[in-house]
Amino acid sequence: MKALQGIEGQLEWTERAAPACGEGQIRIRVAAAGLNRADLLQRAGHYPPPPGVTDVLGLECSGIVSEAGAGVSHRVGDRVCALLAGGGMAEEVVVDARHALAIPSGLSLAEAAVIPEVYATAWLNLFRLGALRTGEKVLLHAGASGVGSAAIQLCKAFGNPCWVSVGSAERLAYCESLGAEGGVLRGDSLEALRDFGPFDMILDPVGAKYAALNTQLLATGGRWVIIGLMGGRKAEMDLAALLAKRIQLVGSTLRSRNADDKAELLADMHRRIWPLFADKTLSPRLERSFPIRDVETAFAALASNQVSGKAVLVIDDSLV
After folding, report:
1. Interatomic CA distance for residues 82 and 176, integer angstroms
2. Quick one: 130-251 is in which CATH superfamily?
3. In the predicted model, what is the mean pLDDT of the chain?
4. Model pTM greater than 0.90?
């Protein structure tokens, strides 16, 4: 099979051995794969896959089940999307059957390919780790990203007013169109976020750069969930503020969670949010689509921070 590798900063669509499909697993003929910032980091050598996971890029995909191992409920021919630790940008992928879900009614394979990673990240960190309660206020840094787009929609659906920090007026308007109450531009003073706070929760893919500000913006008993380090990994902060406000600081990654954790997360998503795709409350927010032959262009577009929402690589255009 053909698969996409990121080697020393270069992308190569090359022949790889097809993985075996065993008990509890399914093989998917990949139609499309979602593109995520983690793929940019892995390509650059900054985010290696967990031990035992393929080095083929891709943390989510959609396609058609072409083989089903013993003990699974999926059948050959089923349309599914899957959450992966790697391997989605390939003609085939083998995955734990519990990590693949039937595509929500009314969505194309291309749209479904960009759901698993960002919605799993948003659902895990907002509602499972962050324990959001109806009416609590949320701040989303990088609100126009894929995760941000999912998080805004989930906040709106479950009754949590949210605000964002973004890079441009156009991206702020995009976030407001999804349901954000408002926000600020990174080029302006982020101190203006004080006008909207204090916040009960902050979802933060930035890290060090916003550490001091986040402690000031959080309400007493607030939760600060760090999911990325785009703004650096080392920060000085006044821990007395965390104590005084009883702030909970949570570090979270999805990719390295074990198979059972991911299966439980996806089962919860299937129950709680999958119906919201069918009734159009939630949207995949697929903004850009690229054929696999234009993979360099696709990666450059994501790296430019000009894609609001999600981008997808079409692996097999006969399926989409």
Report:
1. 29
2. NAD(P)-binding Rossmann-like Domain (3.40.50.720)
3. 95
4. yes
